[in-house]
Amino acid sequence: MSDEPELDFHELHDTVLREASDPVEGTEPAPLWMWLGAALTVAFAGYYLGAFSGGFSVDRMDLAPSVAAPGEVQSGPPTYEDRDPLELGKERFTRCVSCHGAEGRGLPGRYPPLAESEWVTSDPEVVVRILLHGLGGPIEVSGKPYLGTMPKWGFWTDAEIAGVLTYVRSNFGNQAPAIDFEKVRAIRATTKTQDKPWTSAELQELGGPR
């Protein structure tokens, strides 16, 4: 009979299970700075949405059709043709302030001013085409040169384009007649083949400032 002590396998297993496993690369807990960064990012995103979402209203976000009158069936996107042009234009101008400024002064050397601008008060054919198709290349505004590209806003409705132009043409020191949405509609129809931004030279041929 052996004098060796009898092994208790249950005790051996318990001992092994109590040992912590070796760490595996890539499974370490995230550092505190990462959690703080994520929290700050979420907080900033919440603030940004609250400040610049337009209240998530249909009128500003353009995500739903206008409300139909009782007994009527509403179909298609809103046209805004029944809105006051100046009120609608003032709302839409909030999309322009990031470049042209809340007072229409622009940014020297980069974004031309709308305030007291000979281009803003020029023939409707000129300013409507700029909004419909954009503007590219060099341009001189109020005696100062600018070089850049203005994006097109042709995805706006005729009433929206007419409204924002009417608003700008009657504010910031500008005095020019209102532009009717039917005028915008007619220019849109005659320029539907335009597939690139206008140049100042092309617009000058249409009555733009020289």
Main features:
210 residues, Cytochrome Bc1 Complex, Chain D, domain 2, mainly alpha, 40% helix, two-stranded antiparallel ribbon
Notes on the structure:
- This protein has 210 residues and is mainly α.
- The chain has a domain at 85-205: Cytochrome Bc1 Complex, Chain D, domain 2, CATH 1.10.760.
- Helices cover 40% and strands 7% of the residues.
- It has nine helices and two strands, in the order ααααααββααα.
- It has a two-stranded antiparallel sheet.
- Helix 4 crosses helix 7 (158-169), helix 6 packs across helix 8 (181-190) and helix 7 (158-169) crosses helix 8.
- The chain is elongated, with a radius of gyration of 31 Å.
- It starts with 8 loop residues before the first helix and ends in a 5-residue tail after the last helix.
Overall pLDDT, averaged?
A: 82
Which bin fits the share of residues in helices? 40-55%
Please report the first level of CATH classification, the CATH class of the domain at 85-205: Mainly Alpha
CATH topology of the domain at 85-205: Cytochrome Bc1 Complex, Chain D, domain 2
In angstroms, what is the radius of gyration?
Answer: 31 Å
What percent of residues are in strands?
A: 5-15%
Query: Can you tell me the overall shape?
Result: elongated
